[in-house]
Specification:
10 strands; alpha/beta; Spore Coat Polysaccharide Biosynthesis Protein SpsA, Chain A
Amino acid sequence: MDTPLVSICTITYNHAPFIRQCMDGVLMQKTSFPIEHLIHDDASPDGTANIVREYEARYPDVIKAIYQTENQFSKGTPMLSKYLFPKVRGKYIALCDGDDYWTDPLKLQKQVDFLESHPDYALCGGKYRTMIMGENKINEYERKGIDKYPNGKTVTFHDFFDSYLFFTLTVCFRSENISDMFKYKICIDDTVYCAVMNKGKAFFFPDYFAMYRLHPGGVNAGKSRRERLQFSVDFHEEMLPDYGKNSKSLRKRYIRDVIDLRFIDLSVSKHFFRDYLKIVRFSFSGKLDTLPYSLMQLLEKTGRYTSTRIKIFLGIKKKIN
């Protein structure tokens, strides 16, 4: 087989009802170049691995799978950087989780054509639709008025996380730019974006490329808001020393999540004034260019917190333990 130009990386776990559609979305791609589909099954007990083996036997030149006997996610293993990215042979990498799927057969061709002709761009992506399982409902992509850009939109690392247009299931990026991410303990899509966007610009296509499936078995299902915020704060604290200088939007997201997290903890604090003053001090501790944003977050969250406490005191709202 010829060396693939694009390597598609998929992480899958308990996706037996969905994984065929994911692989079919890759196999239907109409390209002028060879591709490979690298799939990591994380010891799924529901038969996902058997379906992947079936496809791997039918398409051995395209599908290359890794089958775990013990679940790696539960151990905190960064699966992209440990198992999939080291096996990439393509000049470009595309991502699609096992419960999502591509809907545009020209997705990869469009993205590769763009990146080949625009060497100053490191990444590109597009729109997607959301399928809400159990509700028989599909939502259109809506992000900060992106429909105002019928010809697409260029985004820099400086403002990348402000609008957050790019999601795992639509992106394609240069594999040469991922080397910086292997040293990090937390390896998620945002880790990829930091490493890649530090090397160039991104282009957002106005095209619909994929379908995102929202279902109870998703990776964040069952996690509390506090747990999700704590993970985000941990991620930003690992990324900021290397990328904070080049991305104001990354610093702003960190500020937002830290303030949100501390207000959640404030609701159960036994030392209200002391802990509130810590939030105030944090809000004034950042760089000058993010100070207006920090103060806006502080005032907004203070108002929301005060309103909630008044409603609880009046019995309008139940206290959340």
